Amino acid sequence: MSSDRPRPRFIPPADVLPRPAPGEEPIVWFEMPGGLQVGLRPIHPDDRQALMEGFQALSEESRYHRFLSPMPRLSDRQARYLTELDQIDHFAWGIGIRGDAGAIEGIGVARYVRDTADRTTAEVAVVITDPYHGLGLGTLAVQALAVVAATRGIEVLTGYLLGDNKPMVRIFQGMGATFTHAGPGLVRAEAVLQDDAPGTLGEEACAELIRVAGRASHPSAPRSDDPDQRG
Ligand SMILES: CC(C)(COP(=O)(O)OP(=O)(O)OC[C@H]1O[C@@H](n2cnc3c(N)ncnc32)[C@H](O)[C@@H]1OP(=O)(O)O)[C@@H](O)C(=O)NCCC(=O)NCCS
């Protein structure tokens, strides 16, 4: 993933302030070049309500880019699909910032869904809430996703995007993707995962992302291969 843009700085767990309370779920923190601190943790079923609220807060354009069709609302079934993950074949990072009174406020989600026919391939979908676009968060989220995907035997990340979705095209270009026409206005990106993830985010960050993602995986959770809910 090559870009001259300044990189996020990984904040080692020992340096995270305020210190997490005992038993609090682990979050991997980064400081963005502009100083914004963002945390990544796996999405879980308790996030359903927050996800639905976050969806409602998205602009129409962001919804359209994310779901490739007009989406006035998210159904309960869709919200369950997007939050009840097995964390192996369907994994998602929730991206948050510390809001007022220290509570974490979700500002994005990045997920992969493994292809049922080719288990070495997974489709990526990412969304960042509109006020936080252009800060490098989409790039960070996809890089963090790639780190986890690689540990789950995934070798290729794909994405369906509108051809005019410049930030997402840039993110895939940064991964050395190839692009093919996939329908009117639609492009399929395909990126072979490289071994340079540690070089991009740093060895320490990758190890922490893998550790935190690994804690979330529990294969007894429902499998996420609902063809109606791609991405
Ligand atoms: C696509 C999306 C996730 C990108 O997230 P983001 O945090 O805004 O993107 P980043 O800040 O990491 O920028 C990614 C690249 O796009 C570039 N970029 C950002 N906004 C841009 C714009 N409006 N025009 C052109 N390039 C842009 C950045 O410079 C960066 O390129 P670089 O690494 O070469 O500098 C975000 O725009 C979004 O949520 N969109 C709606 C949902 C969506 O489109 N999802 C993708 C389909 S699954």
Helix content: 25-40%
Category from helices, strands and their pairing: alpha+beta
Low-confidence stretches: 219-231
CATH-defined fold name? Aminopeptidase
| Largest sheet: number of strands, sense, barrel closure | 9 strands, mixed
Q: Identify every distinct bound molecule in the structure, by name, code or SMILES.
A: coenzyme A
CATH class: Alpha Beta
User: What is the helix tally?
Assistant: 7
* CATH-defined superfamily: Gcn5-related N-acetyltransferase (GNAT)
Classify the beta-strand content into a percent band: 25-35%
Strand tally is 9
- Rounded to an integer in angstroms, the radius of gyration calculated over CA atoms is 16 Å
Distance between the termini: 22 Å
User: What is the average per-residue confidence, as pLDDT, rounded to a whole number?
Assistant: 91
Shape: globular
Number of domains: 1
Proper CATH architecture: 3-Layer(aba) Sandwich
Order of helices and strands: EEEHHHEEEHEHEEHH
Describe the model.
It contains 7 helices and 9 strands; from the N terminus they run E-E-E-H-H-H-E-E-E-H-E-H-E-E-H-H. It is globular. With 231 residues, it is of the alpha+beta class. Residues 3, 5, 62, 65-66, 125-128, 133-139, 159, 161, 165-168, 170-171, 174 line the site of coenzyme A.
